[in-house]
Amino acid sequence: MTHRPCHVLFLCTHNAARSILAEALLNHLGQGRFRAFSAGSSPRPQQQPHPLALAVLREAGIATDGLRSKHWDEFAAPGAPAMDLIITVCDDAAGEVCPVWPGHPATAHWGFADPSAGDAPDEVKYQAFRTTLQRIRQRIEELVSLPVETLTPAALQEAARALARS
């Protein structure tokens, strides 16, 4: 890998909850060694990050400035930042046909249940968002402990996939 931060793209169908949580959390915990992005295969028109995702991030002391829902084509286009690792965080996105990513980055799937699913009251969903953030944090803390500067793409992929089993 180069001396620039390790670029990680988190994918989820609508890019409103899990991928947004992961992006913000990795940027917060990555200490400049990582730069995280997120996108979705089909963000809804005018969709923004889920308000409860933003609320639990703020509650955890994690910056939410600049977070927005975006289509994954942004990251497959010429001039997009080159990714080192792409992680799907929902089962739907993992099963979709993804774009061909420039540079053939490492890939992994970390499945998390959708905290915004269903018609539960907001208090219940808020707790689901907290739990999801906690689970994502566990994996990201392990990711940031890896010596990414010295890992080959194949070793990075193996390590990221192993984290899905932790």
User: CATH-wise, what's the superfamily?
Assistant: Response regulator
User: What is the spatial order of strands in the main beta sheet?
Assistant: 2-1-3-4
Question: Total domains, how many?
Answer: 1
* CATH T-level fold name: Rossmann fold
EC number: 1.20.4.1
Keywords: Arsenical resistance, Oxidoreductase
Protein name: Glutaredoxin arsenate reductase
GO molecular function, one term: arsenate reductase (glutaredoxin) activity
Ordered list of secondary-structure elements with their pairings:
Layout: E1 6-11, H1 18-29, E2 34-39, H2 51-59, E3 85-88, H3 91-94, E4 106-109, H4 122-144, H5 153-163
Parallel strand pairs: 1-2, 1-3, 3-4
Helix pairs in contact: 1-4, 2-4
What's the quick description here?
Pfam families: LMWPc (PF01451). With 166 residues, the chain is α/β, with parallel strands linked by helices. The chain has helices at 18-29, 51-59, 91-94, 122-144, 153-163, and strands at residues 6-11, 34-39, 85-88, 106-109.
Give a structural overview.
With about 170 residues, the protein is of the alpha/beta class. The chain is built from five helices and four strands. The protein has a four-stranded parallel sheet. Helix 1 crosses helix 4 and helix 2 packs across helix 4. It is globular, with a radius of gyration of 15 Å. About 40% of the residues are buried.
